[in-house]
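Example record for the data management plan.
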Amino acid sequence: MLSHHAFGKNILESLTFFSKTNRVNFLAHIYLSGDDEKLVTGNFIGDYVKGKNFLKYPGKIREGIILHRRIDSFTDEHELFREVKKLFREEFGLYSGVVTDLIFDHLLASGWKNYHPLTLRRFARKTHAILLKHVFYLPPRVQGFLPVLIKNRRLESYAQKEGIQQSLEIMSRYTSLPPKAEKAIEVMDANYLFIETRFTRFMNELIDFAESESGIPVKKPWILTG
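Corresponding structural encoding:
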C-alpha cells in the first residue's frame, strides 16, 4: 500500500483542477451508466468537459456527458441530498456538497452487494478496462490521473472510511477544502442512520431517474444476465 505522502504526491496533478464545482463521486456515475461502455466513458469525464464542448464528442460519449450533468442537477436539487449536505455545511461551507458526494460514494461502495451482482473489485477492474480502451476520448488531464486512479484502487478505496478520510485530507492539502477530514468522519458516524436512510431512498430514486434518462438499465443484484 502506498504511504500517505506517496499517495498525495501521485494525485497532486489530478487535484490541481479540483474546485467546489467538481464532483468526486466517480463510482456512482459509473454505476449509473449501466453496461454501455461509451456511456460509462462519457459519464466518467462529464465534469471535465465544459460548456458546449460536449458537442465535439460522438454518439454515446456525448450522451454520457449529458447524463452526468443531469445526474448532478438531480442530485443538487434533491431534498434528501440537501438534508445530508446541511450536516456538513457548518464545517465545510461551499464544499459541503463535495463532502456529501464522497460520503454517498462510501455508502454505495460499502453496501455494494445491494446494488450490483459483481464484486466491487471485479466491477472496478471492468471499469478500468473500459476507460483504458477508450482512453483517447478522455481529456488530457483525465488521461493524466487515470493511471493513479487505477493504481490506488480509488473506486474500491471508498468502501472504507479510511479511504474517504485520506481523500479529504489530501484535497485539503492541495485545494481550499477546509482541513477537517476527521470532523467529516465524526459527523458521518454521529448521524450514520440518518444519512444511510436518506442515501438509500435517494439512490432508489436516482437509479430510476438515470434509467429513464439514458434508456439503459442499471444492473442490480437480482437482475443477472448470462
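Summary line stored alongside the record: The first helix runs from residue 4 to 15.
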